[in-house]
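S1.2 Input.
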Amino acid sequence: MSDFTTLLGDIDSFVWGPFFLIPLLLGTGLILTIRLRGLQFRTLFTALRHGLIDRNDQSGEGDITNYQALTTALAATVGVGNIVGVATAISVGGPGSLFWMWVTGLVGMASKYSEAFLGVRFRTTDSAGEQSGGPQYYLERGIKGPLGKILGLSFTVFAIIASFGIGNLTQANAVATGLHDAFGIQPHISGVIMFIALGAVLLGGIQSIGKVTAAFVPLMILLYIVGAIVVLVINAENIPGAFQLIFTDAFTGTAAAGGFLGSGLILALQMGVARGIFSNESGMGSASIAAAAAKTSHPVRQGLVSMTQTFIDTLVVVTFTGLVIISTGTWDQGKEHAGTLTSDAFAAGLPGHYGGMIVSISLVFFAFSTIIGWSYYGERCMERLVGRHGALPYRMVFTIVVFFGATTELETVWTLADLANGLMALPNLIGLILLSGLVAKETLAYLKFDPKLRASHEDVARHLQEQGTDWK
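S1.3 Output.
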């Protein structure tokens, strides 16, 4: 088993290394940013308003509101990566890693927009009358011939594997660890609680998932951010120095300090991008599965709403985590303390045991919400692979697996999950590049017609007719 784990680690290091997936992720995001003329910078406030204030675009077909689609995607992405992933990046790559996480988030917004746009653009109605879409559909339907079929099938298979790894086992383990640290609850009890809670949520399908995440996700993010703000206020005098470390170390590397062994530019870049993608999933294609279920009158509208998910995840939640770790001076403990680094930082910044308690509770909420979001992703991919009759067995197995995740050591599973993430992203990134022309053409045409996303359903229908585009 040790040889197998070592082999997996070597493959994972190559896939997520500086010469394979990292340049492809950044390059794809950069290409899409250029082709979309800096869409994420030009339309961010409009997108935030449409997704968080207007919230419900009820004018189009779909199963859940665009806000519920956003919170479902946030549920799947705001998880362990926002707490442990950030700590791992900084403890190995230094404070400069946070800068590269920001870069990944900024260019990743264009990737997230494009995959959500395509998810809605090529979605279809399944045998139960529900909307179904994502890379498993748009890669095959958008890219004609054998290549599209191969890419779509590859994504489907790797996404199913990832749903049980990064979307279930590792998250359930994090929940059990958090509950044990915060309240002394034994892992097998946590496993039973999650089994019952997850089964109750999944019983109602995407409508139930959408309602739960719409109520649950904003509260969990708010709890964590408020705790981080308190820490930063207490350590306000250290914030300018923290920013200086972030920007200087991003380009010069970090000297050895404390338990930190030091890192160069390449390591800071590698850790920042890898952990950034682990956190926000931009370019992986998964969030487009939730976007495809949204009620919307045009793919551009939901694409922009989905784009804000990366902004919230990386430019907000990840930033708060990173600043807390760096400003409290706990960042240089060394990579062997990565698992507890965020908790140590909050504990150093808040009196008593409140800091560690906030992190433990947040970890429980973040990880369980990720399980809920990924259950839907995996189910939709299973349906694509074997048909609608595969949905119920998948839900049952997925719910059972959560118990084993809570009660089992998962070193090998973590590596396999990370590898499945990378292999899932590969066909999607190829597809995004090949379909970037279609995305840019239809996006720019729609935004010229409706730059503020205020057009009525009837106006949008007339626009589509004039463009000769029947995306439904």
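S1.4 Remarks. The mean pLDDT is 88.
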